[in-house]
Design goal:
alpha/beta; Rossmann fold; 5 domains; GIY-YIG endonuclease; 31% helix; single chain; binds zinc ion; 766 residues
Amino acid sequence: MNKPTQQNLFQPDDLPEAPTSWERAAASDQLAAQVVFNRPLDTAFHYLIPDELRGMLNPGQRVKAPFGRGDRPIVGFCVGVGPVPDTGRKLKSIDSVLDREPLLSSRMLDLTHWIAERYLCPWGIVLESVVPAGVKKQAGTRMITCYTAAENLTERLKNVKLPTKQQAVIDVLLDAGQPLAIDELTEAASCGTGPLNSLKKKGFIQAVRRRSEPSATDFGATEQQPDLKLNEEQQRALGTIVDCLRSQQHQTFLLHGVTGSGKTEVYIQAIREVVSYGRQAIVLVPEISLTPQTIRRFRCRFDSVAVLHSHLSDAERHWQWQQIASGAVQVIVGARSAIFAPAPQLGLIVIDEEHESTFKQETAPRYHTREVARERARAANIPLVLGTATPTLESWLRARQKKDALISLSRRIGNRPMPPVVIVDVRNDPHITKGAAIGRALASTMRAALNDGGQVILFLNVRGYCPVLWCRACGQAVKCPHCDISLTWHKSRNVALCHSCEFNTVPPTHCPTCNAAGVRSLGVGTQRLEQEVRSRFPNYRTLRMDSDSMRKPGSHDEALQQFGAGDVQILLGTQMIAKGLDFPNVTLVGVIDADTILHQPDLRASERTFQLIAQVAGRTGRGERGGRVLVQTSSPAEPAILQAAEHDFISFAEQELGHRKGRGVPPFEHLARVILRGADEPMVQQSARDMAKTLQQTAEEMGSNVRVLGPAPAPLTRLKAMFRYHLQLAHIEFEEIQRLWNEAIGRFPRAKDVEFVIDVDPYNMR
Ligand SMILES: [Zn+2]
Ligand SMILES: [Zn+2]
């Protein structure tokens, strides 16, 4: 790996000054382009711009340029154009320019450069991931033949009398003032292709090739509805955000509102203000296919809402990108990658459910959407709104330190009370000890709620039928042969499945370890819960929602419509049903097992447990009939569970911050986690030791007090047939970690067949 030389790169910030120096250069010298490649290199490379490409190349376009051994031309992004640097070496030339227009504005180039530095990821890799594939290959377009008027046509036709139809074609073309496709031309001139051919033969018109526009897709426009009336708290929240919009200053707001307090209506009316200035807003939601209700709300309040979801085809994505870039879209709703939407006049960014872990990208570049949004909002001098009932401790601490502004919505709409939450200790429950999922108390409360005409939501964070297959003779669980993970029994498909690598096998009847007969199943997944619910409540309709039952696009939306219409009385599922659902007739929410996350080796285990219970509990008590929540647990004294039951985020946050403060962990310190992996365990281990040693020595030389922790085997030591070791860097200032890493990275001893990645501010600690 080359040593990073990003300080040498052309800085897009210099753009306003640049033209003068280019013009000076253009007069005498040649120009050079800086190009970054989709390779693990932190270097930008200089190339000469040949005369025939001069004026065609701008930062943000892709080029082909000779690279590496053999000088094979490969694709890279041009990130700067300027005078040829005085390197003393002869530069190679750009081969070709791939895009007619820049794919990224200078602002977006800046943002990607910021991501590269902040998340210690090569710029070329960031760029590659930010522009959708459909945009790069111009999906949905094709080359078509167009006709344009020949030069001096008006002159040449002065004394010529053309047949009527040919004259009509000429009139249309001169009127249009631009090339027209054959079908556009024949339609406008109401003729066939005959007159075109005659005119072409006479040299009056010329054929040119042009790319067609991508075909339009539906924005899903729906009947518009008026804004809702805000209560006093909402009004105050809106006023604060609007003041900031008008002052054209950047500010991050943490909108902490209890579930059902009407955060979405505040976003919508703030966006109304933004749209009235002719600007656009980006609304980021955790997983787009999971929030059809939210999308509908935006669509019936704004004319043009682009929804960037994962089921878009390349062509649709390309069309939407162009629509957004042209400024035709008012509101862009999407999952994390929508933060890169090319809105030309962005006025506001909203992140809904800011606490969701899906806002962290788990492949390179491993950015956190919240931080990218903060940087984009800062550079554009616009507000960023983070909305949630259960803020991350990162956001909570910033608000407490007054780095961000806190806005609170403490009451539900209509002053509805928060639902009472009952904690049920199931350690001695007669049903549970017999292997059932639903304990005695939950069963009778469900019966009462259903008899009363209410609907029930049951939450269980485990997919499949049984999460563990277990041998009674030797006590071993049946594991994936490639990963350190128990195989989950999916009864309907009769497979034992690894949820990490998708390995699957027929469920073994004999123990793979000791060969004893009689492998038993242990624990309950959603499929088994569904079976139990159906047999216990045969007179009610039950629907299961998890990633196994909701594979088809649109199935999630359809299921929620059924539940909303009251055709289904019991809805059970995984996280999928914990988010954003708003059904007034849900009078009972049951949490089957509150402990699934609590005992994971993760510094955020308590925080996640609190969030999950508070969010699931928020799905009830939204209508006239009120609602209640039952939480089954074997850890009834756990503070995170007790405080979630009290709907007391602030006490939880303060206590948890206290626990973390002395431990040198987030949100007080930044972490960067380095994961090394390879097929040969001793080599991975050795390589991890070498890396830790190099980092320590480098830190000493630099006088840096970044702490180097580890190496140690990762909690998930074996994954997809690779052994994994990790080490961590910790410091209060992120920049110190960055400084150390950039200095040390060129010094790591080369290790064959061991690869490493660095994850800055990691969420996944497995
Ligand atoms: Zn065994
Ligand atoms: Zn596996």
